[in-house]
Amino acid sequence: MASESGLPTMEEHIAHHLTNLTFGLHPEKGMSFATTSTEAAEMGFWAIHVDSMLWSIALGLLFVLTFRAAAKKVTAGVPGGWQNFVEMLMDFVNDNVRGSFKHKNDMVAPLALTIFVWIFLLNLMDLVPVDLIPHIAYLLGIPYFKIVPTTDINVTAGLALGVFILIIYYSLKIKGPVGFIKELTGIPFQTNIVYIKPFFWVINFVLEFINLLAKPASLALRLFGNLYAAEMIFILIGVMYSAGLIMGLAGGVLHVGWAIFHILVVPLQAFIFMVLTVVYLDMAYSEDH
């Protein structure tokens, strides 16, 4: 319910900030954009979060184009500032890949760099003032417009799914279908008793299959949980300030303090996602896993 002043209540304000710009099939309206959080929920699983898609693609293009510009202007002499930064970042990623991936694959380092920079840019949007861009979008007639893609479980799950596909692909490529099945059924329980082996195969498969699924789930949920919680705190600070629960300088201190702390979270979560991806791919290559 709206307040007596006609302004949204605290619950409505929070719900508005946590609702994506959703396009999908509504049971009554057909294909359309959702204009309320209820309509967005009614569109179900196959609805598209347009804002998450837009920001993910835009920031991905920003990464590709800026790094391509550095590559085109590369020089053997004294590098410029941007080239120097890109080279330092590539050395940082390469060092981490060499420390975690013990096999030969020229794809892993570029993949790690892409994951780190792309997720860093997605996370960085959480430092933009929480009401700024959504309010501008609202004035333009767009009812909802979230700007942090990694607070959308669909985005983090999509990133994790891509990693999971690579894990399965390299497990099958390196070990073969038979070797991969043996890996899933041969550990951790083993026995030489013939009539007990099938029982152990079933137990091993259940345990290893759960362990396999836990890899993308941990990637998706860790990234989503940290960024979603951070966004919630920014929203709550803003709501408390607007409601007069915190006043003047106190509100600014809370915002700045949490933003400074969050500056550490933004690269850390991108780094963790990158490192775990490399580690999981290394495990996919390992014959003794």
UniProtKB/TrEMBL annotation:
PANTHER family from the UniProt entry: ATP SYNTHASE SUBUNIT A, CHLOROPLASTIC
Species name: Thioalkalivibrio versutus
GO molecular function, one term: proton-transporting ATP synthase activity, rotational mechanism
Transmembrane segments: 53-71, 107-125, 153-172, 193-213, 233-254, 261-281
Membrane-related topology note: Multi-pass membrane protein
GO-annotated biological processes: proton motive force-driven plasma membrane ATP synthesis
Primary location recorded for the protein, binned into one broad class: membrane
Gene3D superfamilies the UniProt entry points to: ATP synthase, F0 complex, subunit A (1.20.120.220)
Full protein name: ATP synthase subunit a
Source lineage: Bacteria, Pseudomonadati, Pseudomonadota, Gammaproteobacteria, Chromatiales
Gene designation per UniProt: atpB
Cited HAMAP family: ATP_synth_a_bact
Annotated Gene Ontology cellular component terms: plasma membrane; proton-transporting ATP synthase complex
Alphabetically ordered keywords of this record: ATP synthesis, Cell membrane, CF(0), Hydrogen ion transport, Ion transport, Membrane, Transmembrane, Transmembrane helix, Transport
Short name of any one Pfam family annotated for the protein: ATP-synt_A
Matches recorded under NCBIfam families: ATP_synt_6_or_A (TIGR01131), PRK05815.1-1 (NF004477)
InterPro entries: ATP_syn_F0_a_bact/chloroplast, ATP_synth_F0_asu, ATP_synth_F0_asu_AS, F0_ATP_A_sf
Compartmental location: Cell membrane; Membrane
Function summary: Key component of the proton channel; it plays a direct role in the translocation of protons across the membrane.
Family from the record: Belongs to the ATPase A chain family.
